[in-house]
Amino acid sequence: MGRYLIRRTLFLILVLFIVSLLTFLIFVKLPAGDPARRAVGRSVTPEQIEAARVAFGLDKPLIVQYARFAKGLVPLPGWFLTEDVYYSYGSFVAVKEEIYRRLPVTITLALGAAVIWLAMGIPIGIISGVRKGSVWDRAGMVFALIGVSMPVFWLGQLLLYLFWFQLGWAPSSGLEIGDSIWTAIAKGEFILPWITLAFTSAAFYARMVRGNLIETMNEDYIRTARAKGLAERRVIYKHGLRGALTPVVTMLGLDIGLLFGGAFITETLFGLPGIGQYAVQAIFVNDFPVVMGVTVLGAMFIAVANLVVDVVYAFLDPRVRYT
């Protein structure tokens, strides 16, 4: 296990280096316009463009620009650099500082939604898988079909209209940067965003658990467990479900990794100042350092999630071994 973790960690670092390098080249050095001109706007003088190029470090050698970009995201040792930030074109605020300020909102949104969709999707999938063809199975699959068919932006608007505008049962959210996360949770400002983000995922998880459980319950080792006289409940939950949840762990890790990189639609719709909203605002004003930072951050979360998922496999499925 130790050697495997070392290899995967080194591979993770390599992947992040390649992603960050490609992101840097795409936004800064490919022929898509002068970054300094994009930063200052259109009606400017050559002197202002040159001043912007100096201010953002675009006059330095390419390797220095890339090192400054990488160091602006992660606090790396700075050998020959004195700058430790990469600045937004629009606000001249350090991208790293702004991301770290918004990250708690995104993490709270992602983890809360994950708890809800797991609490909904896994039980529905188990009931549907165990009682295949029953009324409960059909009801669970109708729920899954409805959930999969609902776009997030439409469901969010519907929940806002019903529970905030019409009934007044839930706040519309709209946090400010720096607001207390715990206070917002206590006021219920995350309830509608959590449900919006969780509903579709719960439907996918219910279908996945059902299909995996039906397939697993037909395996030879399940028949052996039944032949030994084990109780059906024990066979289902100790043997069948353990194998059926292995693909769910993969999906969960990737989903949470993606959401940590920003729930773009949900955060924008409910006015949550997270990573996704930050990226959307940056795209509208061509603030490419912000987009670059969010891109690399999302890649980092996905790579780490893959590593965690592979380690968890060994605990869920005894047949998995690492060398």
Q: Poorly predicted ranges (pLDDT <50, ≥5 residues)?
A: 75-84
Structural class: mainly alpha
The helix fraction, in percent, is over 70%
- The number of helical runs is 15
Give the overall average pLDDT.
Answer: 77
* Radius of gyration, taken over Cα atoms and rounded to an integer in Å: 24 Å
Tell how many strands the DSSP assignment holds. Answer: 0
Summarize the helix and strand pattern as letters. Answer: HHHHHHHHHHHHHHH
Number of domains: 2
| Major sheet attributes | none
Terminal CA distance: 6 Å
Q: Architecture of the largest domain, CATH level 2?
A: Orthogonal Bundle
**Into which percentage range does the β-strand content fall?**
under 5%
Fourth-level CATH superfamily of the largest domain: MetI-like
CATH class of the largest domain: Mainly Alpha
CATH topology call of the largest domain: MetI-like fold
Compact summary:
This protein is 72% helix and 0% strand.
What can you tell me about this protein's structure?
This protein is mainly alpha-helical and 323 residues long. The protein folds into two domains: 2-71, no CATH class; 96-316, MetI-like fold, CATH 1.10.3720.10. Helices cover 72% and strands 0% of the residues. It is built from 15 helices and no strands. The protein has helices at residues 2-29, 35-40, 46-55, 62-71, 95-130, 135-149, 152-166, 181-186, 191-216, 220-227, 232-244, 246-260, 264-269, 275-284, 288-316. The relative contact order is 0.13. Residues 75-84 have low confidence and may be disordered.
